[in-house]
Amino acid sequence: PYIGAHISIGDQIHRVWKSRKLSCENLGNVEPGRVLEVTDEGTVMVKCGEGKIELLSVEPPLKIRKGECL
């Protein structure tokens, strides 16, 4: 997403300040927006239309688990 893009979860708005696109193989039938991984450092990998993105800097930080949908 572009710098400053936002994600709404409930009544909370989260701004994306840094992300990167990653290649994605062998995910089968995973729909775009599904959280693929959450690291201990708080980065979130999300399936998108083609590939996946890694959300590196989100404010406030996302409190989300693998398998949830954005």
Could you describe the 3D structure shown?
The chain is an all-beta fold and 70 residues long. The model has no long low-confidence stretch (mean pLDDT 89). The chain contains no helices and five strands. A hairpin with a 2-residue loop joins strand 1 (5-9) and strand 2 (12-22).
How would the blueprint of this fold be written?
Elements: E1 5-9, E2 12-22, E3 35-38, E4 44-47, E5 52-59
Antiparallel strand pairs: 1-2, 2-5, 3-4, 4-5
Shape: globular
Order of helix and strand elements from N to C terminus = EEEEE
- How far the N terminus sits from the C terminus, by CA atoms, comes to 13 Å
Give the strand tally. 5
Spatial ordering of strands, largest sheet = 1-2-5-4-3
Backbone CA Rg: 11 Å
Beta-strand residue fraction: over 45%
Uncertain segments are: none
Total DSSP helices = 0
Mean pLDDT score, rounded? Answer: 89
Overall structural class, as computed from helix and strand content, comes to mainly beta
Largest sheet: 5 strands, antiparallel
Estimate percent helicity: under 10%
List keywords for this structure.
5 strands, mainly beta, 0% helix, 5-stranded antiparallel β-sheet
